[in-house]
Design goal:
The complex is a heterodimer. Chain A is an all-alpha fold. Chain A is built from eleven helices and no strands. Classes of the chains: A mainly alpha, B mainly alpha.
Chain lengths: ~200, ~170
């Protein structure tokens, strides 16, 4: 029977095999290994702590409940990051649609109608959670990352923050290797522009 | 030249800032919340017992079973018990007769088996195995049979390997 200490020395594949055999400790080990990277990726994508936590939770539930469909020829990390990234991208798309609907009802023609039907999205009081977020994501580099296109953001975060190989990022994003390299190059160019004033 | 130096300097700054980024942790209790919604694979026998329990515990079925149980108790007290007391001597006689018949049948089966063992030479074969030093192959054959039986139990009780769970990745 593998203890938690033994599990830490095993590779992802072995831990997944133990989890498939019904070992709860193996499930917890997978959670321990990936909760921070997955949460960080989603948080930096959606930039909302509570939402990121919900999405990370859904990601883990989906992955852990479907371990039997995991194919060992692929890296476990690619699989979990792929599901996390898809969850974040879906959320960003939904948010984009919601943002459009904030501009007032489609039938509104005059300025008064638009104003009357527009939703009040601005909350002037900053909640403790929002305060924490602005502290966590408030640095220059975090703000610059937030300005990138979502696909550039995923690519640059996986490459330079999570230290993933280009091939793995291509697998996660379902894109050709060349496209991933281009995304990372462009993301770096954009970050360079945003951070030009920080030059030492 | 200056422009190139400027660009590489900026690149260095970007990489330095990126690699210095910290990782964030979800709030406390995150893994417990996830584990509460994850279903661990269970041995087939446990799954069967749980399913049976869940089937029985469905409100309508539970009520039906409780009513049936209460009805059977009432029927037993009102009809079966008085009938049994009234017919006790006859029942005792009948039980004794059935006991004798079953005893006789067991006796004749045992005698037939012993007779077959002697006539067919099976008894001699066992005796020959014991005396000729072929005990170990016989024990090995028994052990193999035992192991096969054990594996049968294991196959029944082992965690099922589900393959029908699909994930939209």
């Amino acid at each position: 029977m593998a203890t938690a200490k033994d599990l830490r020395t095993l590779g992802d594949r072995e831990v997944v095999a133990l989890a498939k055999a019904g070992k709860e400790a193996a499930y917890r080990e997978l959670l321990n290994r990936y909760e921070r990277p997955v949460f960080s990726l989603i948080y930096r994508m959606v930039r909302d702590r509570a939402l990121a936590e919900d999405l990370a939770q859904e990601t883990f539930i989906k992955v852990l409940n479907a371990l039997d469909s995991y194919r060992p020829e692929f890296k476990f990390s690619s699989w979990i990051f792929k599901i996390a990234n898809n969850a974040a991208i879906d959320q960003l798309r939904k948010r984009e649609l919601n943002t459009l609907s904030l501009d007032g009802a489609p039938g509104a023609r005059t300025a008064e109608e638009v104003e009357a039907t527009a939703l009040q999205a601005v909350d002037h009081t900053e909640s403790p959670l929002a305060e924490l977020e602005s502290r966590e994501l408030g640095s220059e580099i975090e703000q610059a990352i937030g300005k990138l296109r979502p696909e550039y953001r995923t690519a640059i975060l996986l490459r330079h923050v999570e230290g993933r190989a280009y091939e793995e990022i291509a697998e996660v994003m379902d894109l050709p290797l060349g496209t991933v390299k281009t995304y990372i190059h462009r993301a770096r160019l954009e970050l360079r522009e945003y951070l030009a004033h920080l030059r030492t | 030249m200056d422009k190139q130096l400027h660009a590489s300097d900026l690149d260095f700054t970007v990489l330095r800032e990126l690699t210095a980024l910290r990782s964030f942790a979800p709030s406390r209790g995150f893994s417990d919340r996830v584990m509460a919604r994850v279903s661990l694979p269970q041995p087939a026998a446990v799954v069967l017992i749980r399913r049976a329990g869940a089937w029985v515990m469905q409100p309508r079925r539970a009520v039906t079973l409780a009513v049936a149980y209460a009805a059977s108790v009432v029927i037993a007290l009102r009809l079966a018990v008085p009938w049994l007391t009234a017919h006790a001597p006859a029942l005792k006689l009948g039980a004794a007769w059935v006991g004798t018949q079953v005893g006789t049948l067991c006796n004749s089966v045992a005698l037939s088996a012993a007779d077959w063992a002697v006539r067919s030479g099976a008894a001699d074969a066992v005796r020959a195995v014991a005396s000729s030093g072929k005990v170990w192959p016989a024990v090995a054959a028994l052990a193999v049979g035992y192991a096969v039986g054990g594996y049968g139990f294991y196959a029944l009780l082992k965690t099922p390997g589900r393959t029908d769970a699909l994930v939209r990745a």
